[in-house]
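subagent[fold] <- orchestrator: predict structure for attached chain, return tokens only, no commentary.
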Amino acid sequence: MSESVRQNLPASDDHVTVHPSPDQLLVIRKAAELIGWTVTDFVLSAALDRAERDLYEHAAALEAATPAETDPTGPYTALLLALS
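subagent[fold] -> orchestrator:
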């Protein structure tokens, strides 16, 4: 997995269970194999990538709604604050 906020996430006892169809699992398995990852690593990475993108977009939308300052790092700062 690439370096990102993933490394700073606290350990948790939460579990996520998904039940893909056989066709969906085949696609996921083939994609994971292409890059040498396990299905679990691939699915977790995809979920985290999506979560980071959604958090960033939400932070950017909040920043755009309150344009009090023109600091271009505002959305990044909001994202980091949301993750802490």
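orchestrator: received. Logging for downstream: The chain has one domain: 19-83. The mean pLDDT is 82.
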